[in-house]
Amino acid sequence: MNSQMLAEIQNQFWSGLKYSDNEIISAIHESDDFKSTDRFGVYRSNARYLHVSVLISVFPVCEKILGNENFKQIAKKYFNDNPSCSPDLNEYGEYFPSYLYGLIMQRAELEEYKYLVDLAQLEWNRQKAYFCDDAVDLDMTVFQQSCERMGGEIVFSLQPGISILETQFPIVALWEMYQSGSIEKEVKFIQQSEYLCVYRKEFQVQHEKIDADIFNLMKAIQNKCTLSAIAEIFQKSARLNAAIEKVIKRKWLKV
Amino acid sequence: MSMRSPNFIDSSTLKGIGVGLRAPHVAEILTNQPELDWFELLADNHIAEGGWLRRQAIEVANVYPVTMHCVGMSIGSIDPINFDYLKKIKNLAMEINPKLISDHLCWTSLHTHYSHDLLPLPYTEEALIHVASRINQIQDYLGVRIAVENVSAYLTYKHSIINEVEFINALAQKADCSILFDINNLYVNQVNNGQDSDEYINNIDVNRVAEIHLAGFEEKENYYLDAHNSHVHEDVLVLYEKFLSCNKDIPTLIEWDHDIPEFSVLYGEAIKAKNVHRMFNDKRESEYELADAS
C-alpha cells in the first residue's frame, strides 16, 4: 500500500476543483450513464455555486448594480483566486472589495464603477458586524480608574464589529436606494469625503454618517494609538474631548 | 456546562423525532413550542460568539433538547486539525449543552483552504488509520464522543479496497465514536454508485448508531443530488423501516436545508417519521412484554 495515497488523492482532487482534472479523473470509477468527468464535475460546480451564492448574499447591492450575470462572472474569478481560508463560510468575501478595485483599475471600461469598491466595503463591514461578538458594556468606573492610572499611555479599543469608512461617493444613498427597490448606476464624486461608522445595535446592523473628528478618533483607536498620540493628532484641541464623549455615549468604545 | 469526559454528553437520552433548526422557523418554534422531541442545530451557523444566530441557538436549547451537527471539522483531511474551529464548537457546546455532536465522514479542506463541500474519501487502510486518529484527537479536545455521518457521494475511487459500511464500522470501533446513519445518503449512493443498501443496513453496527438522518434529494439527469430541499422520498422511508426493524430505538432527524418550506411542512415530515418510529417502538415493546410474560 502506498502510504501517501490519501495525500495524493486530496491534492489531485483539490487541483481538479480549480484547474485541470485529468489526474483525479483517472482515479474515479465510472459507469456508462455517469462518466467520471461528470461525476467530478458535480463537485466542481457545487463548490463554485456555493461560493458565488455566498458572495451574492453578502454583496447584494453590488450584485444588483452589476447585474446577476456580470456579478457571477466576477465572483467565479474571485473564487478561483481567493479560496475560502476559514471553515466558517460567513467569513468568505473579505477581499472582494479589494478584488473589485484591482479589476476596475485594470479595465478602463469599468472606470465608472469605481464607487463599487467602497460600496462593497460597506456591505462587507455590515456582514462582519452581523456576525461579531456581542458588545461588552463600558463600566465607567473602571474606565475612569484606567484613565487615571495610565494617563496618556492608555489605549482604547472599539467594541466588536465596529468599523469606519471614508468615501468620496454617495454610497449610503445608493445602499438606501437599493433597500427601497430602486438603483442608480451613474454615480458621481461628492465634493467632500463622507465618513461612516458601521456597528450592531442589539441584533440589528446599522451604519451612519459621522463627522471628521469622530472618524479621526476612531481611526486612531483602531490603529492602537495611545491617548497622548491621539491628543497630538487633535493638536490638543478641545474637539478631542467632545469626540471621546460622543463615542462613549454611542457605546462604541471599550478599554 | 463542563465537558469533562467523553461520556458527559449522554446521547442515550436523545429520543424520538427531531427536525433541523432553520432560521425562518425560529420565531414560530419559540412562540408555539410545537410537540417535537428535539432540534438539530447546524453548529456552523451558530459559532459566531454573538449576534442573533447565537441567541437563537441558546433560546431553542432552553426549551428543547438539541444536537450539534458540524460541517467544518474536515475529519478526513491531511491538513492539521483546525483547533480554532474546534474551540468555537466547544464554546457553543458549553452554552447549549447538546445531546450529541456530529460531523461527516469526508474531508472539506486542504492546505488551509476550505471547499465547504463534503468531499469523499477513499476507503483504504491508510485512510482508516488516519481518520480514526483524527477523530481521537477531536474527541480528546472536545471531551465528548462524536458521531460520524456517512455522506452522499457522486464518485468512488479505484483505490478503495474496503466497502463503506465495513469502513465506517471499523472506524467507529477504532476511534470509539458513534455513527450518524443518513438513510437518504445511503439511497443516493445506491443510485449514484451502485451501493447495496440492503447489505449496508444488514451490516452496519447498530449499537454504534446514535442518530438517523432522513432528507429529500433532487433528481438530476444522470444522478441524484443530496439537496435537502424536498420531502423524504418513499424509497428512503422503506429503507428507514427496514433499518428500524433492527430492534433498537434510534432518534431520527428530518433535514431540510434549501428551498425551506413553512414549518408546518417540516412538521408534517416529522410526523410521518414519528408514525413509522412509533410503529416499531410499539412492536418492540409488545415483544418485550411477551418475553417477560413467558
Topology of helices and strands:
The complex is a heterodimer of chains A (255) and B (294).
Chain A: H1 5-18, H2 22-25, H3 36-58, H4 60-66, H5 68-81, H6 96-106, H7 115-130, H8 140-150, E1 157-158, E2 163-167, H9 171-179, E3 194-201, E4 204-210, H10 212-222, H11 227-233, H12 239-249, E5 253-254
Antiparallel strand pairs in A: 1-5, 2-3, 3-4
Helix pairs in contact in A: 3-5, 4-5, 6-7, 7-9, 10-12
Chain B: E1 17-20, H1 26-32, E2 38-42, H2 51-63, E3 66-69, H3 83-96, E4 101-104, E5 107-110, E6 113-119, H4 125-142, E7 146-149, H5 164-175, E8 178-182, H6 183-193, H7 197-203, E9 209-214, E10 218-219, E11 224-225, H8 234-244, E12 252-254, H9 263-293
Parallel strand pairs in B: 1-2, 1-12, 2-3, 3-4, 4-7, 7-8, 8-9, 9-12
Antiparallel strand pairs in B: 5-6, 10-11
Helix pairs in contact in B: 4-5, 8-9
What does this structure look like?
The complex is a heterodimer of chains A (255) and B (294). By secondary structure, chain A is mainly alpha-helical. Chain A folds into two domains: 1-113, no CATH class; 133-255, Outer Surface Protein A, domain 3 (Alpha-Beta Complex), CATH 3.90.930. The model of chain A has no long low-confidence stretch (mean pLDDT 92). Chain A has twelve helices and five strands. In chain A, a hairpin with a 2-residue loop joins strand 3 (194-201) and strand 4 (204-210). In chain A, helix 10 (212-222) crosses helix 12. In chain A, the strands form two sheets. In chain A, strands 2-3-4 form a three-stranded antiparallel beta sheet. In chain B, helix 4 (125-142) crosses helix 5 (164-175) and helix 8 runs parallel beside helix 9. Chain B contains nine helices and twelve strands. Residues 1-7 of chain B have low confidence and may be disordered. Chain B is of the alpha/beta class and 294 residues long. Chain B has one domain: Divalent-metal-dependent TIM barrel enzymes (TIM Barrel, Alpha-Beta Barrel), CATH 3.20.20.150. Helix content of chain B is 42%, strand content 17%. The longest helix of chain B is centred in the last third of the chain and has 31 residues, at 263-293. The chains are: A mainly alpha (255), B alpha/beta (294). At the A-B interface, helix 1 and helix 3 of A face helix 2, strand 5, strand 6 and helix 4 of B.
